[in-house]
């Protein structure tokens, strides 16, 4: 089983699919699933854009990619996604239409994740719910924590909500261990005064082999978490540099060679760089 991992799309929802397609063509290795660390830019209605997204959209139309390509069906995109036959499972970021996502989440009932696009290829996993993905005899187990943390007691929907905290608390009683913790924010151990305490608590209470997150703007890095068990990886945001290319560490491949045995590979810029800001949609 191979999993491709990305962070912070900000509207470029087609780009991970394009990169996986390129990776498969270049390497001959099949990818089975995409995981994504939030900030999709899931704004079906442009009236709901937050200030930051609206500001960036004025000079970068890619910020509106969800609205333009994933709300109303386009035959070419539908055919492309059907041919690729992949799903992308994500957590919420802070730059999303949370009213829209809340309505879909409530409608989904007891399901652990729910689709958010017209093609049903992009899914949001609910915070604290156990997720599984199977391919043949291989199995991936993971948990998502969406949105961001806050140290000021604010309750706006971009911040983790009380019902999500309660769901995480129930996870601590399971005594299970998982392959991946997927989040948008990082834990709150930073001296810079931000992060999510719920992530720190989860990593201290539950065993994960890997933790992947985005959001912070920091470079790609992997290191052993302070719990001494989890490999924690900051995935570089999927944003084009000034020269129009993608940065190192924006695409990760996790390969399961046998049960509970995973290998992590950083896809090199020599491959990701073949999709540039001006030509990635071609």
UniProtKB/TrEMBL annotation:
Residue stretches making up the Calcineurin-like phosphoesterase domain: 1-216
The protein's GO terms of the molecular function aspect are: hydrolase activity
Which Pfam family, any one of them, does this sequence belong to?
Metallophos
Q: What is this protein called?
A: Metallophosphoesterase
Source taxonomy? Bacteria, Pseudomonadati, Bacteroidota, Cytophagia, Cytophagales
């Amino acid at each position: 089983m191979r999993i491709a991992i990305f962070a912070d799309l900000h509207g470029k929802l087609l780009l991970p699919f394009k990169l996986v397609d390129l990776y498969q063509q270049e390497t001959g290795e099949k990818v089975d699933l995409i995981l994504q660390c939030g900030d999709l830019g899931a704004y079906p209605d442009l009236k709901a854009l937050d200030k930051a997204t609206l500001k960036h959209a004025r000079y970068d139309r890619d910020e509106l990619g969800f609205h333009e390509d994933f709300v109303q069906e386009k035959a070419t995109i539908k055919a492309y996604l059907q041919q690729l036959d992949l799903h992308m499972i994500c957590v919420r970021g802070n730059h999303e239409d949370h009213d829209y996502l809340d309505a879909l989440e409530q409608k989904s009932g007891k399901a652990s994740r729910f689709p958010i696009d017209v093609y049903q290829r992009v899914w949001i996993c609910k915070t604290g719910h156990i997720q599984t993905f199977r391919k043949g005899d291989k199995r991936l187990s993971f948990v998502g924590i969406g949105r961001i943390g806050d140290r000021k007691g604010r309750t706006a929907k971009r911040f983790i909500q009380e019902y999500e905290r309660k769901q995480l608390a129930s996870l601590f009683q399971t005594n299970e261990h998982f392959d991946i913790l997927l989040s948008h924010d990082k834990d709150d151990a930073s001296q810079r005064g931000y992060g999510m305490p719920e992530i720190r608590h989860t990593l201290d209470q539950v065993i994960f082999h890997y933790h992947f997150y985005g959001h912070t703007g920091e470079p790609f890095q992997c290191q052993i978490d302070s719990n001494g068990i989890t490999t924690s990886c900051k995935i570089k945001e999927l944003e084009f540099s000034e020269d129009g290319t993608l940065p190192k560490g924006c695409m990760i491949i996790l390969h399961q060679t046998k049960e509970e045995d995973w290998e992590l590979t950083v896809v090199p810029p020599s491959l990701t760089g073949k999709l540039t800001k001006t030509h990635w949609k071609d």
